[in-house]
Design brief:
Elements lengths: L1 E3 L4 E3 L6 H20 L9 E6 L5 H14 L3 E4 L1 H15 L11 E5 L5 E5 L6 E7 L7 H13 L5 E2 L15
Antiparallel strand pairs: 1-2, 3-7, 3-8, 4-5, 5-6, 6-7
Helix pairs in contact: 1-3
């Protein structure tokens, strides 16, 4: 066996490690997404929503998120390009086209008092997931989250994710 350091996997024979390479690629993208846009202070989201997004609606979503951050005096971090670069590099290294991982949206908004939102589509390019987090003592958090959801609902059909579940695939072809 020959170890290829840049490939992130052991190369034995052509195609033998395709499954491992794909898993490493997906894991790498998710890891970068978490590091770039994790919840503030490690807080679990108190509200989670998801909705379908068409490719031509991406600029509208990004403008809306920037506007929310500006109005709420929040830091706005867009890690989307970094995730796209990771996905591209993994395609180059593994030879596997993982189209469903790109283009990525990975944005975080964080205010000094701990109020935050993480916005992602990692793994589901046509579906957006948003988690709203805040310290427990921040009374205004639910009202803020609802105001953001209301703005989103002006453009998209937003679905609330139950507390005890994660995001599930939506049927975006029908929306």
């Amino acid at each position: 066996m020959q170890f290829k350091p840049t490939a992130l996997f052991m190369e034995t024979e052509r195609g033998a490690n395709v499954r491992i390479a794909k898993d490493v690629s997906i894991a790498a993208v998710f890891t970068v997404a978490f590091l770039v846009t994790g919840c503030a202070h490690g807080a679990h989201p108190f509200v989670q929503v998801q909705f379908c997004l068409k490719e031509n609606e991406r600029p509208l979503l990004m403008d809306l998120l920037r506007d929310v951050a500006r109005r709420e005096h929040m830091d706005f971090l867009d890690g989307s390009a970094e995730l796209d670069a990771v996905a591209k590099r993994q395609r180059e290294v593994t030879g596997i086209e993982i189209a469903r991982l790109s283009p990525n949206i990975s944005v975080s908004q964080t205010r000094k008092d701990g109020l935050s939102a993480s916005v992602r589509n990692v793994g589901l390019p046509d579906q957006i997931f948003i988690g709203f987090s805040a310290p427990k003592e921040l009374d205004s958090a639910r009202g803020w989250a609802q105001s953001v959801v209301t703005r989103l609902e002006e453009h998209w059909m937003v679905v609330t994710v139950p507390d005890d579940e994660g995001a599930t695939p939506l049927d975006c072809q029908r929306r």
